[in-house]
Amino acid sequence: MNAPDLRPFKAKPARAKPVDREGQEQAALMQELRLRYPEAYALIYHVPNGGHRVKAVAAKLKGQGVKAGVPDLVLPMARGGWFGLYIEFKARPPFDAPVSPSQDAYLQALHRQGYLAIVCRGSIDAVEAIRAYLLQPATVAA
User: Fold this and answer.
1) What is the extent of the structural domain holding 79?
2) Position 13 in a domain
3) Crossing angle for the helix pair 123-135 and 21-36, nearest 10 degrees?
4) Is 142 inside a domain boundary?
5) pLDDT tens, 97-140?
6) 65-76: buried (b, 16+ CB within 10 Å) or exposed (e) per residue?
7) In angstroms, rounded to a whole number, what is the distance separating the alpha carbons of residues 138 and 77?
8) Are 26 and 91 in contact (CB under 8 A)?
9) What is the C-alpha to C-alpha distance for residues 76 and 70, in angstroms, rounded to an integer?
């Protein structure tokens, strides 16, 4: 009679929780803007368009106007002949994600409508882009 093979159970190694580097860097950007550019901080806002959702919630949000490719940040301050600034925010390399085709298409469509629409990789890149944008003269409506 053969004895059963009683090898010890090998537990799978615990998966590390994913780190939201993009979210962390975007929060750092907001803190920097609050301190250095309070007027811009008062107006800039995040468009919570991404993330994983239950299908029913995703369908509901799509019906309410959520669209693929909409940039992460909007600064509704007109400068340098532009009507406002849109930023597709990515974590800095090597943690950055590529710009998706829908994001690229949306950035181009915004640009055609008179908005400065850019990609920033990391909070330092974004602060510098916002600083350069704010240094331009205000766009005057005719």
Assistant:
1) 21-135
2) no
3) 40
4) no
5) 999 999 999 999 999 999 999 999 999 999 999 999 999 999 99
6) ebeebbbbbbbe
7) 8
8) no
9) 15
* Sequence-separated (6 or more) residues with CB below 8 Å from residue 26: 46, 72, 73, 89, 123
For residue range 27-42, what is the model confidence (pLDDT) as tens digits? 999 999 999 999 999 9
Tokens representing 119 are 């990609």
Residue 12 lies in a domain: no
What is the spatial distance between Cα 65 and Cα 44, in angstroms, rounded to a whole number? 20
SS3 content of the chain, % helix, strand, coil (to 5): 40, 15, 45
Quick one: which of 81, 100, 95, 91 has its CA closest to 126? 91
Q: What would the two tokens of residue 51 be?
A: 């993330």
Query: Which tokens hold the place of 22?
Result: 């993009």
In the chain, the number of structural domains is 1
Structure tokens that stand for 99 in this block = 């710009």
| 15 within some domain | no
